[in-house]
Amino acid sequence: MNGIPISHILFVSTALFFIGIYGMFTRRNLITMLMAIELMLNSVNINFVVFNKYLWPGKLDGVFFTIFIITIAAAEAAVAIAIIINLYRNHQSIDVEDAVELKH
Amino acid sequence: MNLNLIIIIPLLTSIAVLFCKGLKQVRMISLIGAAIQLILSFVLLYAYWQERAAGNTSTFIFEYNVAWYAPLHINYHIGIDGISMAMILLTSFIVLTGVLVSWKMPARTSGGEMLSKEFFFLLLFLGVGAYGFFISLDLFTLFFFLELAVIPKFLLIGIWGSGKKEYSAMKLALMLMGGSALVFVGLAGLFFNTNTGDGTHTFDILQIAQMHIPVEVQKLFFPFAFIGFGVFGALFPFHTWVPDGHSSAPTAASMFLAGISMKLGGYGCLRVATFLMPDAAHYYSWIIIVVSCIAILYGAFATMMQTDLKYINAYSSVSHCGFVLLGIGILTQTALVGAVMQMVSHGLMTALFFACIGMIYDRTHTRQMSELGGLLKVMPFISTTFVIAGLCSLGLPGFSGFVAEVTVFMGSWEQTDVFYKIATIVACASIVVTAVYILRTIGKAILGPLEKNQYSLLKDAGWHEKWAASLLIIGIVAIGVVPFWLNHLIGPGAETIMSNIKNVTIIK
Amino acid sequence: MNYSEYISLILLLPLAGFVLLGLFGKKLFKQSSGMIGVLVLLISTVLSLYTAYQYFFVNGKLNDVYQTIIPVKYTWLQFASGTSIDMGITLDPIAVMMLVVVTFVSLMVHIFSLGYMKGEKRFSTYYSFLSLFTFSMLGLVVASNIFQIYIFWELVGISSYLLIGFYFDRPSAVAASKKAFIITRFADLCFLIGILILAFEGGTLDFNTLIHRLTDTQSSQYISITTASFLGVSVLTWALTLVFIGGAGKSAMFPLHVWLPDAMEGPTPVSALIHAATMVVAGVYLVARLFPVFSINEASLYIVTWIGAISAILAAIVACTQTDIKRVLAYSTMSQIGYMMFALGVAHLGGESGLGYTASMFHLFTHAFFKSLLFLCAGAVIHLIHSNEMNDMGGLRKYMPVTHITFLVACLAIAGVPPLSGFFSKEEVLLAAFHSNKLIYGIALFTSGLTAFYMFRLYFSIFWNKSKSLDTHAHEGTFSMKLPLIVLSICTLLAGFIPFGNFISSDGKNLELPFLLNFSIAPVLFALTGIVVAMRMYKKENNLPHRVAASLGGLYKAAYRKFYIDEIYLFITKKIIFNLIGRPAAWIDKNIVDGTMNGIAYGTGKVSHWIKGIQSGKVQGYALYFFSGIIVLAILVIYFWK
Amino acid sequence: MWSDYLQLIKAEGLVAIIMFILLFLKLGKKERNTESLLHFINVLLVINFISGFFFNAEGTLFGDMFQTNSLLSLEKNILNLGTLIISLQSFQWLKGHKHILEFYMLLLSTLLGMFFMISSNNLLMFYLGLELSTIPLAALANFDLEKRTSSEAAMKLILSSAFSSGLLLFGISMLYGATGTLNYQELSQQLTGTPLQILSFVMFAAGFGFKFSAVPFHLWTADVYEGSPVAVTSYLSVISKGAILFVFVSVLYRVFQNISVVWYNLLFILSVLTMFIGNLFALRQQNMKRFLAFSSVAQVGFILIGITGQSAAGSASVIYFILIYIFSNLGAFGVVSLVSAVTGKETVNDYKGFYKNNRMLSWVLAISLFSLAGIPPTAGFFGKFFLLLAGAGKTSSSGWQLNYILITIAALNMVISLYYYLRIIKAIFMDKNDNPVEKVKSTFSPNLSFIICVAGILVTGFASSAYDYIFSLVK
Amino acid sequence: MTASQIIFYFIAAFILGCGLLAMTTRKIFRSAVWLLFSLIGVSALYFWLQVEFLAAVQIVVYVGGIVVLIIFSVFLTQQSGKEMPKAPLTRTISSILAVLFGFAFTYSLIYKTNFQTANANFDADVSRIGTQMLNTGDQGFALPFEVVSILLLAAMIGCIVIAMKSSSHLPKEKSTVSKPEL
Q1: Can you give the pLDDT at residue C474?
Q2: Distances in whole angstroms, Cα of residue C14 to Cα of each of C45, C136, D430
């Protein structure tokens, strides 16, 4: 379809996924970590849509999954941001390395 | 006779203790409960003889078998043969004397409280575990009771003990749990290699004994079961909990530990490892013998260098329990009888020993041999008891130790291989070393001039202590002077085990 | 009366006495326990005398051969079929003789102790111990089963232990009792192993069956025990040697004799009973009991002979130098038992060649009387002087005439002066030795000279020598103390005339003891020389002994220090067993075995500490682990572990 | 038709109804007596729990997305029970909290999520249930609003869970790509075990592993447990973990049975790692909550062994163990929660000499710890025994007797775990303390919860009926 | 190469480039903007894939909702111009290695998998989606829809409780974490 092999699209999504993971590992700012997670979820969304469209077009499972993921991502982001703001209130910082009282 | 009573009565007693108020009530209830249990044991013995006399030749009598966890083929199955009967008698003796010895509850917790209720509860509860273990005919039930008897020991030692009690309690609990962990693997392996004919497995000892477990399986799981139980029975080199555990425990707990707990191991080795996996028992027999000979001699030599009375008895227990394992390793009927006799004998004797040490410690507040001396003068009863315990320990005829040891020795003579004889002779050598340390102990602690002047004010044993000691002495002498009843009691049980062993095609 | 109706009473009465006095003596029989003990023993003695009469004169013989009669026997502990420990009573000549000796001497000691131990705090305990000992000793001598003998052997040992350590607040007594027990225990170990071997090869524990099987050259047991060998020595030799070691331990034979002199820490009557007349001859008795088996094994007999001979001369030499009167007597005992031992060793089964056997038993018999007499006299002396040291004594003949006379009788007897009992028995021993081994004979002869010397050295030092002034009210002691002395001295005087060979011989048949007048010249001469020398040196206070001692130099010193055997023992036990075995064992247990267990615990804790960095508290680190975990696990399960 | 719907979805419906009741209460009057409010809520939860026994039906709904049967109802009710106990236990803490109703609403929404997760027959529903049971929990973890550690914990929880659900989703998407379906039954037939499927399975399993704290996916656990309010911690450690394990068992057994070799090996590694790491960390902990966190990590290792059994006995023993685990862990957490709420003391050292003034609480804690350690006669012994027995019953496909190696390791790990449980026992009963915790006054609700827990611990093991019932359902 | 292909590669490059920049740039506000672009790129990809409804949802929810939320929170919590601290070098390197390896591994597996493209027609118009969304029967997503609604409710409650400024602002407590010991 469109002459693009599915593996190329999957390359994009996988790469995006790992970019997200990379961000998760290296960004010390909590909000950017959240962004990294959004990237990961987006890559998964692409996967679902592509699989649905290219491989299993009979049902709309992939698309619906994507819709729900987007919704949940929103909810998750909201809660996460609320927590981060609360953390900021308590710690005066949103650097992840500043919140390491709990360890070992 | 309903065998369940044997578990229910101590259980009820221990629960009743929890509802008591004050030391007086607690100890009276404990005493009554333990005394009833002792009487019950004798009634059971009588019933057992009656049943046998009536011609009941089944291996186990008073069986009671109900499904417990049916999907897992776990039954609550109890029953006794002569060996269990002997162990029940032993246990009831020691529980009662343990209660008597703890009458005044001299050992306080580190917080300075008596906590008498808890103490007697744990003591009696420990008895439940031991009784249950000895009458179990289902591996699960057996294992259940085996583990049941671990934690009360931990608490008894840790709370009411002396010296480095926490360390000892922890060591004991961990090593025993390690042992039972191995036992568990052995049991599980055994379980999944049984076949009741319809493709299901069973935990039932009687059924497993009838099956022929594949030899390879036996070889694989025998070490687990044997070492696991061996840890309880002070198998070299897994005996190191013994000295520390015994020496830190309060008197009654020491008595229990050495008198019963270590027997759990011996009994388990016999009933589970050897009985159910006879091929492997043959296969590993030489290792067991070598290890137990090491334990016997090495334990004895190690005892020689100890200065703390409890350590002396603890190490000597290692040495004496070596005879139990030796008897099991030799794999002849006489030796098995000897092993069981040694269990009973050592149980009584070592309990007596610990009781004496406890009484001495209560009065002099020391267990160091160098700080004792001349006690015979001020407390003749305790000292005499101590001497009797010592003499029993060194295998003097007329006391139980001799009978048991000689039976083990004679047992090895039924094996034709020279190896068994040399091992036995090596084990025999321990009687000299035993004499050395026992006499050294007696000579230093009991005889000689009075070590400290303030000792001259010490009082001799009270009535409860006298009763405790007398009961144990009666037991020891009853076996030592007229051993044949015990022999008759144990004999058929050992024969059952032997019949399994004899069917083995010997593999070398 | 049939034996079985009363024979057990001989044993059970002392046992009952022990239990009664042991449990209730302190409370109920504080004063009367002595009398109870004596009464019990009296009945026993009468019964054994009656038994002896019955056996020797009424019904012991069948076809002119003394039979072994087992009137009582029951199974005590059954092992496999055929092997069981039985408790039984055997009557044969030596057992009956021993019954008489043991009960009689014990009775004497019981009586003597009435006076000697009077006022002791633990009077009843003492009597209960004595009864226990008597019971055990009697059980030993009548044993019908080799394990029975072992059981009573041990009981005898423990009663000896208890009695030696009777004065438990004396450290030396405690040490002595411990030493005695441990050394004999070591010997017992060998005995036990010997028993086990015999039992295994013989397939039984019963004496008669065992002896029968092992002496019947056709039996499979005989063939197997003589052909099997271990380390190049036949199993029979091993077994017998081990059994003999057991006997040697109890009988204080070289080199296991070191406990005996120390055992004199016990009350003197006890020494008379246990360490002179009865227990110490148990070894001899054991060899005699198994004599048919010994006699078919030259090697073990050879060992018996030489150990006996060496002990005899060694002890005699040491005895000459000791100053503690009880120790002198102890060494003398050892020496005399050496006599008995080698007499057995040179004997053979049957007829004339069995002379040594009869001689040995004869000497045992007479020795029991005069040695217990000597000890009791020494007891009387010590009772008076409150010291064991020869130097504290002297000139006591004035104060204690009865003791003096009886002591003299006993000395003459042990020295072998005719016509006292010792002369006859020793004569036979020497004769037996002469017939079989001249070297042994020489040693024996020399020993008899030494015996005379040291006994009279003792005699003169106590009763003559320097005159000592004692309190006027010093007296010999009560009637109860004198009576046994008199009775025993009469026995000593008369026992020699018993035609011993008629009763006891290696094969149960009649053996006419030879008595050769010209043969006895040499020993008597030696004895007289000894006496004369002793008289010269010790009758009056002078410094001759010192001069002699000085001139002997090293030999004297060595003998005085008992040839350093105690030191050697100390070295072995303290340095080798304690330091090289005990201490390392304890160390290994604490550091290596226990250390491993603790090490595991410590290691676990350490690992737990090392890996705490994983839990860094940083979410990114967690995510990294999470992710790496997935990748590693995926690679593992995809490629490596399918 | 409607009654069928109602009956099938009864458990979820009830929880939702309670949620809405609370919501209306919140919207209504401002000031309320907190204690009576709490009692009211507890009564609601009791009703919820009791109703779980009745009117249970079997069937599927919503085009096969939702299914229920007696086993699932039982699982849900086990969670109901746990929630009830936690609610009773947090009485003391909630009494002083401003947001009681929000707390319960969030709590119940997560419970609802778990119910959907358990009943899901579809990866989408599973995912939604998972998120519904996670996101509100993160908010709950932050409920000690003024506490630094609480917000830190919440942050860690939400970030970690988002990350893990990212990976989980990636796995699901790949599974979807490979099979074209989200339905369990269809999925199980489509799986062939290609490397990509295995990778996606591992990612998928890691998502589970994150929720039930299997090493190496467990790292958030201790931090979050320590930082969160005790009630939330116990909820996390018991309910949330139990629910995901229920699901895990059924997913593995039903959906991934084609690649059972793969997941057996995976579980082998995971359980060994989990037991060891959990134990080794638990050894050193000083904070009770953190200690219990690691101990619960280690417990998961044992549960995984039960799962490896791959048999009816396996899943029955897992469910049975979780029931027992609820009693035991909540018994322990209950005491910790009470003590922490009253005195603020949370470390092991604070518990030294605890027995002096608090006899009953000490015994409750001790019995719970013994049960966790698997000591008879507590139910924990039975639970662990059956788990390991189930693990041992797996017939080994390779030459190595893997199943026995696994249970040997597990059995030895039980020894290590015993050490740290006994360490607490030692502190309570044996150690001296000049200044022990004063007598903690306990009110009706916590006491009731303790009675339930202790009775559960003591009875569940002896009375085989619980296990028999579960087994009959599993079969 | 068709236009469609060119467009795809352009979109792909745009998504990845923006995503990478979003994850690497040191300024947080820029990072958020790059994220925004990346998400728009994804939405473009959906357009390209002819899933217009999703593309719309993507823009509405992500671009209009989440990113705005993020930017707000950025303003709330710190200055936008400030440079973010860098992660430690070891962490960066190990992350890069792990990610690269993970990517190579994952993609190699994907690449090797032979996805069989289906030939059936793919129809994702809004009416179909709408019908299925509220359908309770087969192919219906009513239940997930309800579940998500509860999730949103819960999230809302959670956010309110947490983010609501508490009336009594207690002084900042000290760290109460006890250090583990062994």
Answers
A1: 62
A2: 11, 9, 54
Domain definitions of chain B by residue range: 5-502
Contact between chains at B174 and C601 (C-beta distance less than 8 A) = yes
Beta partners for residue B69, in sequence order: B74
Instruction: Please tell me which of the candidates E5, E121, E175 has its beta carbon nearest to residue A101.
Output: E175
CATH code: domain A6-95 is 1.10.287.3510
Alpha helices in chain A (DSSP H): 6-26, 30-50, 61-91
Could you tell me the two tokens for D128?
Answer: 């939604």
State the average pLDDT over residues C470-494: 79
C-beta atoms of C611 and D277 within 8 A: yes
pLDDT digits (tens, 9 = 90+) for B206-260: 888 888 888 888 889 999 999 999 999 888 888 888 888 888 888 888 898 888 8
Q: To which residue do tokens 């793919």 refer? A: E122
E46 belongs to a structural domain: yes
Cα dihedral: D336, D339, D344, D347 (round 10): -50
CATH of the domain at E136: 1.20.120.1200
pLDDT band at A21 (very low <50, low <70, confident <90, very high): very high
Q: Which residue of E has its CA nearest to A17?
A: E103
pLDDT at E11 over 90: yes
Region of poorest pLDDT, from B325-339, C17-31, C440-454, D159-173: C17-31
> Which residues does C206 contact at the CB level (< 8 Å), separation at least 6?
C86, C144, C145, C146
Buried/exposed code over E90-105 (b: 16+ C-beta within 10 A; e: otherwise): ebeebbeebbeebbeb
- Least CB-CB distance to E177: which of A8, A71, A101? A101
- Residues 6+ positions from C23 with CB-CB distance below 8 Å: none
Contact A28 C617 (CB under 8 A): no
D456: its two tokens: 């559960």
What span, in angstroms and rounded, lies between the C-alpha atoms of B257 and B267? 14
Q: Find the domain containing E62 and state its range.
A: 3-87+125-166
Nearest to A44 among D124, D156, D173 (CB): D173
Q: Provide the residue ranges of all domains of chain A, joining segments of one domain with +.
A: 6-95
Chain D, 268 to 327: residues with Cβ < 8 Å from chain C are 269-270, 277, 280-281, 283-284
Whether chain A has a CB inside 8 Å of the CB on E142: the answer is no
Residue E165 pLDDT: 64
Closest-CA residue in chain A for D147? A90
Nearest to A102 among C612, C617, C624 (CB): C617
Q: Amino acid identity, residue D42? A: N
Residue E109 lies in a domain: no
Number of domains in chain D: 1
Mark yes or no for CB contact E102/A79 under 8 Å.
no
- Interface confidence, given as ipTM, is 0.92
Q: Whole domain around residue D246: which residue ranges?
A: 2-474
User: Which of E62, C609, B155 lies closest to A37, judged by CA?
Assistant: E62
In a domain, E83, yes or no: yes
Q: Which residues of D touch E139 (CB under 8 A)?
A: 63
Of residues C278 and A44, more confidence is placed in A44
Token pair, residue D162, equals 């988002």
Residue E93 lies in a domain: no
Considering its fold, how many domains does chain E have in total? 1
**Where are the alpha helices (H) located in D309-348, listed in sequence order?**
312-343
Most confident of B64-78, C556-570, C572-586: B64-78
pLDDT class of C470 with cuts at 50, 70, 90: low
Single-letter amino acid, residue D18: I
* Cα–Cα distances in angstroms (integers) from residue B438 to residues B300, B368, C158, in the given order: 10, 15, 13
Residue pLDDT, tens place only, C173-220: 888 888 888 888 889 999 998 888 888 888 888 888 888 888 887 887
Contact B221, B158 (CB under 8 A): no
Nearest alpha carbon to residue C280 among C114, C105, C431: C105
Answer yes or no: is pLDDT of D323 > 90.
yes
Least Cα separation, residue D225 to chain A (angstroms)? 10
